[in-house]
UniProtKB/TrEMBL annotation:
One Pfam assignment: Rhodanese
Protein name: Rhodanese-related sulfurtransferase
Transferase as UniProt keyword: yes
Residues annotated as domain Rhodanese: 15-103
InterPro entries for this protein: GlpE_sulfurtransferase, Rhodanese-like_dom, Rhodanese-like_dom_sf, YgaP-like_TM
Entry-linked SMART domains: RHOD
Gene Ontology molecular function, alphabetical: transferase activity
Keywords attached to this entry: Membrane, Transferase, Transmembrane, Transmembrane helix
TM regions (residue ranges): 115-137, 143-163
Keyword Transferase tagged: yes
Amino acid sequence: MQTQITPAELKQLITEGRCHLVDVREPVEHAEEHISAARLIPLGELEKRASELPKDKSLVIHCKSGKRGTKAQEKLKQLGFDQVQNLEGGIEAWKAAGLPVASADKKVFPLMQQVQLTIGTGVLTGAALSLTVHPYWVFLSAFFGAGLMLAGSTGWCGLAILLSKMPWNRVSGQSCGSAKNCSA
């Protein structure tokens, strides 16, 4: 079995009902746009929710561009799933092929944009308060700067993890899962 599948091949499998499509992006991304037949299981939850997937049916994984899909494919093969393919180019290739996408009624800023807005607000607030109230407010700006340096050097973003747990980032009662990397 080939490891990659094209959008046209996937469309055919969906039409014939011969595959189970899994979207491994985060709930906010899925709500923004998704392939109607896709079931959402974020990459960070894949191992603990693998029992929800059929082992006797072909699985097709998709993400935004293919990188997370490849990681999911490797995880599922380690868990004993033999028939796993990754949508080549992810949902971006699906859309480029002119195939339809659906979206949820609920619109939320992408997680990275939420992180940027929060950090920008914190830095601006710290600077304004340090000029008008007390010079020690500059440490608020320093706190957000240190957080950016930590996220940039380690790939771990505590603010993204915190924001992913917020109620507005929940879709159908699920949280965004582990936002390990700010640039996910």
